[in-house]
Design goal:
Layout: E1 6-15, H1 19-30, E2 35-38, E3 56-58, H2 63-67, H3 74-85, H4 93-107, H5 109-116, E4 145-147, H6 151-168, E5 172-175, E6 178-186, E7 189-198, E8 213-226, H7 235-241, E9 254-255, H8 265-271, E10 276-277, E11 282-290, E12 300-304, E13 310-313, H9 329-337, E14 343-349, H10 350-356, E15 358-359, H11 366-369, H12 373-381, H13 387-395, E16 399-402, H14 405-414, H15 423-435, H16 445-453, H17 457-463, E17 478-490, E18 493-494, E19 501-503, E20 509-515, H18 537-552
C-alpha cells in the first residue's frame, strides 16, 4: 500500500548528495537559506561517488609541486587543458568559459579553501595523463595530481560535517530514498520537484538497492540544483551514447561506479527544458580489473599504473607509441576498440608491481584513507606489493603469476578470451624490449621515457621502477594482468552559464534551475571537452557545487 504523499518547502532543493550536492547545500545553508537534500539511496551513501574516489585534485603551482622542484604556471596549465580538451563545437562556448574559470580556481584559492576546512595533501605529486606527444599536444606537461590525505572520504568529510551540523539546527533537511521523477515548472521556470518515496533499505554503502515505491512527495523550492551524477552504472545508456570516434562499444565492460549512477535525472531535466550537450563525450578506463570482493554489481577497480608495464593487445602485439600506462586514456581506448577485442594485457615483473601498482579507490588504499603513516611507509617503500595489490595477485580473476614466460603465456591463454593470444608474438615483444636494456641509450621510446621520468623525484621515489629486464629471474616472478574497459565518468551534461544556471536549447536561462557536478559535465555541460587531465572530477564537483550553491541563494 502506497503511503500518503509528502509535501515539503525550502528555499533551495538539492537533488543528489554527492560531493557537488554537499558543497552546494553547505554554501546555501551558510547564506541562511533553508535547504532540502534528496537522494534515491539510503543515507549510508551520503557523499556519493566521491567517497569511493582516490581523492586526486588538480592544482597548479602548488607548494607540493614547488617542494619537488616542479615548475608550473597558469599559462602552462591553460596550454595543457585546451590542447587536451580540443573544444570544437558551437555548444562549447560555456564549457570553454568554465575551463578558464576552473583553471583560475585550481591555480588560486582551491587549495587554500580546502586547507581552511582541514583537508591535507600527500606530499608527493603524481603525474597522470602524461601525453607523450609534442609540447602543445594533449596531456600534463608536469605532475599535477595531488592526493587528498584521507582520499575520497577525507575530501567528503568537512562538507558532510557542515551539512550534518546545519541539519542539527534545522537549516538543512535530508530525505533519503526520495527519487525525483519530474521537476515542477511554472511560467517557464522550475519551482521544485516531485517523485517517489522508495522503500527503506539497510543496504551498506555502495550496495544495490530496490526501487520499490511506498509513497510520493512534492517539494516547493525557489531554487533547484541538479547534482545527480552521471551514467557510468547504466551500461545500456553508455552504449547508446558511445561515440563512433571510440570505435564500437565493448560487448562486456566492468563498472567503476555504484549501480545508482544511472543517468535517471537526464530525461527529467530535459523534460523541464534543460539542454543536455556533449553526451557522446565520456571517460572510461582501459586498466580495469574485476574486483575479487565486489560491493556493487559487476564491480571493477582501476589500476593506477606506473609507466613500466608492457601493454599488449589481446593478440599479444605491443601498443604503439605513446600508448603507455598512464599516458593517454582515451587514445588507448580508441586504439584498443579497433582491435576487435574487449580486453588487453599488462606484462610486468614483481619489481614493477611492488613499485608502480596502486589501485584506484578509497577502500583499496587503507594507508592513505586511514591516514596511517606507518602503514604508508611500509606499503609504499617496503619490499613486496602493497597489501591490496597482493590480494588481487592472490585472488583476482585477471592476474597470472608464474616463474617462466612459457608458464605465464599458458596461464594467460587459459583465461576467457586468452585463446586469441599468439605465444610467439608475446615472446618476440618481451624479448625485444628486454634487449634494449643492455645499453644506456635505446630506440625503445618507452624505455627512454622511463629513464627520463626518474629525473622527477616523485617518480623515482614511489612511482617508476628502475628500468630492468622483465625476464631476468632476479626481478621475478612474471605477472600478467588481463585488463577490461571500466565505465566511469560522463564528460557532458546539462548546459549552464558561469553561475551554474541551467540553459535551454536557445541558450536562455531557466529560472530556478541550476546544475553542478557530473550532471553538468563538471561545469557548463562539459568543462573537459573530449579528454580530462585527471584530478579534475572531484575538483570539478567542488568548483561547480560551490558556484551553484552561492548562485542559488540569489
Amino acid at each position: 500500500m502506497i503511503a500518503k504523499s509528502q509535501h515539503h518547502e525550502a528555499d533551495v532543493l538539492v537533488i543528489g548528495w554527492g560531493l557537488a550536492g554537499l558543497v552546494a547545500a553547505t554554501e546555501a545553508a551558510a547564506a541562511g537559506r533553508r535547504v532540502i537534500i534528496v537522494d534515491q539511496e539510503p543515507r549510508a551513501n551520503l557523499g556519493g561517488q566521491a567517497f569511493w574516489s582516490f581523492g586526486g585534485l588538480f592544482f597548479v603551482d602548488s607548494p607540493e609541486q614547488r617542494r619537488l622542484g616542479i615548475s608550473d604556471s597558469l599559462e602552462l596549465a591553460r596550454q595543457d587543458w585546451f590542447a587536451t580538451a580540443q573544444f570544437d563545437r558551437d555548444d562549447d562556448h560555456w564549457p570553454r568559459q568554465w575551463a578558464e574559470a576552473y583553471l583560475d580556481f585550481a591555480s588560486g584559492e582551491n587549495r587554500a579553501w580546502l586547507r581552511e576546512k582541514g583537508v591535507g595533501f600527500f606530499p608527493v605529486v603524481g603525474w597522470a595523463e602524461r601525453g607523450g606527444y609534442n609540447a602543445t599536444g594533449p596531456g600534463n606537461s608536469v605532475p599535477r595530481f595531488h592526493i587528498t590525505w584521507g582520499t575520497g572520504p577525507g575530501l567528503v568529510a568537512p562538507f558532510q560535517a557542515s551539512v550534518e551540523a546545519a541539519e542539527a539546527t534545522g537549516r538543512i533537511t535530508i530525505l533519503p530514498r526520495h527519487r525525483v521523477t519530474a521537476l515542477r515548472t511554472h511560467a517557464g521556470g522550475v519551482t521544485g520537484a516531485h517523485g517517489d518515496v522508495l522503500a527503506p533499505s539497510a543496504a551498506a554503502r555502495g550496495e544495490q538497492t530496490s526501487r520499490d515505491v511506498v509513497g510520493s512527495f512534492e517539494i516547493l523550492a525557489a531554487a533547484t540544483i541538479v547534482s545527480s551524477g552521471g551514467i557510468g552504472g547504466n551500461h545500456d545508456l553508455v552504449r547508446a551514447q558511445w561515440p563512433a570516434r571510440l570505435g564500437t562499444p565493448p560487448t562486456r565492460m566492468i563498472t567503476g561506479v555504484p549501480a545508482y549512477v544511472d543517468g535517471s535525472m537526464q530525461p527529467v531535466a530535459r523534460a523541464a527544458g534543460a539542454h543536455l550537450i556533449n553526451g557522446d563525450r565520456m571517460w572510461h578506463y582501459v586498466e580495469g580489473i574485476q574486483n575479487w570482493s565486489p560491493i556493487w554489481p559487476n564491480h571493477g577497480i582501476r589500476i593506477l599504473p606506473g609507466p613500466s608495464s608492457v601493454w599488449l593487445e589481446a593478440t599479444g602485439a605491443r601498443l604503439p607509441v605513446p600508448l603507455y600506462p598512464g599516458f593517454d586514456t582515451l587514445g588507448t581506448l580508441a586504439h584498443l576498440r579497433r582491435t576487435g577485442h574487449d580486453h588487453s594485457w599488462f606484462v610486468l615483473s614483481q619489481k614493477i608491481i611492488e613499485k608502480e601498482f596502486t589501485l584506484s579507490g578509497s577502500e583499496q588504499n587503507p594507508d592513505l584513507t586511514g591516514k596511517d603513516v606507518r602503514l604508508l611507509l611500509r606499503s609504499r617503500l617496503g619490499k613486496g606489493a602493497a597489501g591490496p595489490v597482493k590480494a588481487f595477485m592472490d585472488r583476482g580473476a585477471d592476474f597470472v603469476v608464474r616463474r617462466s614466460l612459457d608458464e605465464l603465456i599458458e596461464g594467460m591463454r587459459a583465461l576467457p578470451g586468452g585463446e586469441v593470444l599468439d605465444p610467439e608474438l608475446v615472446r618476440r615483444e618481451i624479448e625485444a624490449r628486454d634487449r634494449e636494456i643492455a645499453n644506456d641509450f635505446t630506440k625503445d621510446a618507452q624505455i627512454a621515457m622511463l629513464r627520463s621520468a626518474r629525473a622527477f623525484r616523485g617518480d623515482r621515489l614511489i612511482r617508476t621502477a628502475a628500468p630492468h629486464r622483465i625476464l631476468d629471474p632476479a626481478n621475478g616472478p612474471l605477472i600478467a594482468v588481463k585488463l577490461h574497459v571500466l565505465t566511469r565518468k560522463s564528460l557532458g551534461g546539462i548546459k549552464t552559464d558561469l553561475s551554474a544556471r541551467a540553459l535551454d536549447e536557445r541558450g536562455s536561462v531557466i529560472p530556478g534551475l541550476f546544475a553542478a557536478g557530473e550532471a553538468a559535465g563538471f561545469g557548463g555541460g562539459g568543462v573537459h571537452g573530449y579528454r580530462a587531465l585527471e584530478g579534475t572530477f572531484v575538483g570539478g564537483c567542488l568548483f561547480s557545487g560551490r558556484i551553484a550553491g552561492r548562485a542559488a541563494v540569489g
